[in-house]
Design brief:
Blueprint: E1 21-22, E2 27-31, E3 44-48, E4 53-56, H1 63-73, E5 77-81, H2 92-100, E6 103-106, E7 117-118, E8 124-126, E9 131-136, E10 145-149, E11 154-158, H3 176-187, E12 195-198, H4 207-231, H5 239-246, H6 255-271, E13 275-277, E14 287-289
Parallel strand pairs: 4-5, 5-6, 6-7, 11-12
Antiparallel strand pairs: 1-2, 2-3, 3-4, 8-9, 9-10, 10-11, 13-14
Helix pairs in contact: 1-2, 3-4, 4-6, 5-6
This protein binds zinc ion.
Residues 39, 86, 88-89, 159, 199-200 line the site of zinc ion (ZN).
Length: 290
């Protein structure tokens, strides 16, 4: 097996629940059977290493999934790492620890996750065959971290960057300003990233293009939010009115989610002094362009 391929002609291994798929010499993926609107095909759990294994994102507390991860680990799982504490990523940590005795590591104890050790930006997890570097990437969640497999320059991006689904930024824990700053930091990363293994979807073979797309899309949306808000004049508008004005190309089913995104953009504009709110912590508050 080769390292994650940058050859576009190479087929992408299928996403089949609970079947370990080798993505490289040291990397395997086990897809959890939890597909949905917010999870795409489901949560990707990654196993790094053959001798000593680190698991990234055990997923939900799903017995079949945890059994599949433990079986693939054949007694060699030493670390359970969580990119963040959302329901499709970290609740499986306790059950996987029970099955394997491995140590649980993440940024913080939260949302029911109990860590043996906390990780901060710049920390490393060192296996006999690899180094995983911790990169704090707040935005989607304040406690979100990515893991860089340095030998392959492969980034395990959690929900910071996804393939095929949109990353939701939900204040107050989510923060659009921090999110864009975290994307820009990865864009500047040296040596350049070779590939991104997201928690949802396939491996991304062109990180630079993906990061550019993400930043461009968000900044376009931000400009739309500001222009729309300016159109409402001195009376201003709330997030529901702005979504109805902006998201005309998106099914109404997704509007409740879009409201959080608009709110996140408004808060960033507020930080930058171009929008003001009666109560910026209230998702239903009225905003006006400054
Ligand atoms: Zn997720």
């Amino acid at each position: 097996m080769s390292a994650p391929s940058t050859d576009e002609a190479a087929p992408r291994p299928d996403l089949i629940p609970e079947v370990p798929i080798a993505l490289g010499k040291l990397v395997r993926r086990v897809l959890c059977n939890n597909p949905g609107m917010m999870t795409g095909p489901g949560t990707n759990t990654y196993l790094i290493g053959q001798d000593e294994i680190a698991v990234i994102d055990p997923g939900p507390d799903d017995a079949a999934h945890l059994d599949a991860i433990a079986a693939a680990g054949s007694g060699r799982i030493k670390w359970i790492l969580c990119t963040h504490t959302h329901g499709d990523h970290s609740p499986g940590a306790a059950g996987l620890k029970e099955r394997t005795g491995a140590e649980v590591l993440a940024f913080a104890d939260r949302d029911g996750l109990v860590c043996d050790r906390h990780l901060v930006d710049g920390d490393t997890v060192e296996g006999t065959e690899f180094t995983l570097r911790v990169i704090h990437t707040p935005g989607h969640a304040a406690n979100h971290i990515c893991f860089l497999l340095e030998r392959d320059r492969l980034l395990f991006s959690g929900d910071h960057i996804m393939d095929g689904s949109t990353v939701v930024i939900t204040p107050l824990d989510g923060d659009m300003g921090q999110y864009l700053a975290s994307l820009e930091r990865l864009q500047r990363w040296s040596p350049k990233l070779k590939a991104i293994a997201p928690a949802h979807g396939h491996v991304i073979d062109d990180p630079a293009a993906k990061l550019d797309d993400y930043l461009t899309h968000r900044l376009e949306r931000e400009a739309q939010v500001l222009a729309s808000l300016q159109g409402f004049g001195a009376e201003g508008a709330d997030t529901a009115q702005l979504v109805a004005a902006i998201y005309t190309d998106v099914p109404e089913l997704l509007w409740p989610v879009a409201r959080f995104s608009v709110w996140a953009h408004l808060r960033k504009l507020g930080d930058e002094g171009t929008a003001t709110a009666v109560d910026r912590d209230d998702p239903d508050t009225c905003w006006t362009a400054a």
